[in-house]
Write a structure and sequence with these properties.
alpha/beta, Aspartate Aminotransferase, domain 2, Aspartate Aminotransferase, domain 1, seven-stranded mixed beta sheet, three-stranded antiparallel beta sheet, binds pyridoxal-5'-phosphate
């Protein structure tokens, strides 16, 4: 049996029809960028996340770049973040002229709140936690550190639409939330897309200007920025997926529970914390035999991924150039492996994945 890590084809005939209809509607009204579907999506996302203000942008990277810029992060500033993320997180800080400083992670792979404070100095302006693999960070502790030192908090929610902690949605707890909605994400477009969420009207107004070249009234440039607007067609696709999102999450969570039960005692499994809802963007197991297991799964037709090596502080572009405090991350990243767990993975496929992992440990 073959089990791909992710299958981006739209194979369901009803979904295909619905998406094609959405494109036709956009072609009919002709408001191709920031059209009515964008505004509708912004409103719906705001309601789901619990934020009054939202801005559709053209990627998760842009959401981060524009959010940091709107807050006023720039040359000479430091932003403390996790070492474990897709490099977009650090790059968004750097392209604004600031320096990423890498703290450490907990055993659940999210930012360790206790690793932040030793890195704070007079240049520190903000903390940028990443809700990694669909698991909400320990936001109360992170927000307490931010408050104590008057720092802004930018949440990278790229992997975590729908994740909750104590009934609060990610992206509603810091000053500003940033979501990726590219085609690999659980709340996906058919290409590139992103969203910014905030309850701060002034910040939102700034983002609105920054997402189109710093122009006011589309003509007069007040700030240097770029074009980061969201396509109407992408918003229309995301809106359709949003309508099915709870069913999709239920399936992901069911597969996660299946793996928790099947793999208990063999590998470290990414269980939910009490009072939290993980969305399992990836199902990341941890085992010291990671490399051998990955190879064995590959030989048995199962695709898996290591997300992400090198760690951001060890990427050639950052290594030796920024401060880090990332010892636990360096240890854990040797053990992580993401196995197929998205909503398209069938019952037969997940049983085959679990059986293959069990067989690996039996024979090794
Ligand atoms: C944690 C994290 N931050 C930022 C991004 C960047 O998002 P995008 O690819 O939409 O630019 C990603 C995308 O994979 C991500 O996983």
């Amino acid at each position: 049996m073959k089990v791909p890590f992710l299958d981006l084809r739209v194979t369901d005939p009803a979904q295909r029809k619905e998406l094609l209809q959405a494109v036709e509607t956009v072609m009919d009204h002709g408001r191709i960028i920031l059209g009515p579907e964008v505004q509708r999506l912004e409103n719906k996302i705001g309601k789901r996340v619990g934020c009054q203000f939202t801005s559709g942008v053209n990627s998760g990277t842009d959401a981060l770049v524009l959010a940091l810029r709107a807050i006023g992060i720039g040359h000479g500033d430091e932003v403390i973040t996790t070492p474990l993320s897709f490099v977009a997180t650090a790059n968004a800080i750097t392209v604004n002229g600031a320096t990423p400083v890498f703290a450490d992670i907990l055993d659940d792979l999210t930012l360790d709140p206790e690793s932040i404070e030793p890195l704070i100095n007079e240049k520190t302006r903000a903390i940028l936690p990443v809700h990694w693999a669909g698991k909400a960070c320990q936001m109360d502790s992170i927000l307490a550190v931010a408050k104590k030192h008057s720092l802004k908090v930018i949440e990278d929610c790229s992997q975590a639409f729908g994740a909750l902690t104590h009934e609060r949605h990610v992206g509603s707890m810091g000053d500003i939330g940033c979501f990726s909605m590219n085609s690999m994400k659980s709340l996906a477009s058919l290409g590139e897309a992103g969203m910014i969420t905030t309850n701060d009207k002034e910040l939102w107004e700034k983002v609105d200007i920054l997402r189109y070249h710093g122009l006011k009234n589309r003509e007069v440039c007040h700030f240097v920025s770029h074009n980061g607007r969201l396509d109407t067609v992408q918003a229309a696709f995301i809106e359709k997926r949003l309508d099915r999102y709870e069913d999709l999450l239920a399936r992901r969570r069911d597969t996660a529970q299946f793996y928790h039960d099947a793999l208990a005692g063999l590998v470290h499994t990414p269980k939910d914390h009490p009072h939290c809802r993980d969305v399992f963007y990836t199902y990341t197991i941890q085992t010291k035999k990671r490399d051998e297991l990955k190879l064995y799964m590959e030989e048995h037709g199962i695709e898996s991924k290591i997300q992400h090596i090198p760690l951001m502080p060890d990427q050639p572009v950052y290594k030796g150039k920024t401060i880090n405090n990332s010892n636990n991350a360096r240890k854990l990243v040797q053990n992580v492996l993401c196995i197929p767990a998205n909503e398209k993975v069938s019952d037969e496929q997940r049983e085959y994945v679990a059986m293959t992992i069990k067989n690996f440990f039996k024979q090794s």
